[in-house]
Amino acid sequence: MARKMNKKTRNTLSGILVGVASVFAVINFADIPAEEANSFVLTTLLFFVIIVVLALLAVTVFKLLAWVKRRVIKEDDAPWTASEEPDPESSQVESREDRSQP
Q1: What is d(CA 32, CA 35) in angstroms, rounded to the nearest whole number?
Q2: Do residues 37 and 27 touch, judged by C-beta distance below 8 A?
Q3: What's the rounded Cα separation, in Å, for the pair 100 and 3?
Q4: Among 8, 26, 79, 98, which one has the highest count of C-beta atoms within 10 angstroms of its own C-beta?
């Protein structure tokens, strides 16, 4: 049985294929020479690859910053010792009956 493709992946691939088909349609319709078409396709592909690499670097930097932040916060929160632990009974909220009595 064939596995369904994720909707976002399907939409992305469809968009890329429509873009490629549009570029080739414009090249054929405008009678652009093969050398210029190759140059255009190469520069467009290079531009696309640079954008993807920069996006991956940005995501990596943000994830790294979040990881460092979690590590710094985790080190600041030292575990409680037995003498510093709060009493669970004193931290519980009083019931309505307890609050109604003076």
Answers
A1: 8
A2: yes
A3: 62
A4: 26
Query: 44, 23 in Cβ contact below 8 A?
Result: yes
Quick: pLDDT tens for 16-75: 899 889 888 888 888 888 888 889 889 988 998 999 999 999 999 999 999 999 888 876
Annotated domain spans of the chain:
10-75
Integer Cα distance of 23 and 27 in angstroms? 6
The set of residues, in sequence order, having a beta carbon less than 8 Å from that of 101 and lying 6+ positions away, is none
Where residue 32 falls (left for φ over 0; alpha for ψ -120 to 50; beta otherwise) is beta
Q: What are phi and psi of 29, to 5 degrees?
A: -70, -40
Q: Name residue, tokens 């670097």.
A: 57
Question: H helices of 1-102, where?
Answer: 7-29, 34-76, 96-100
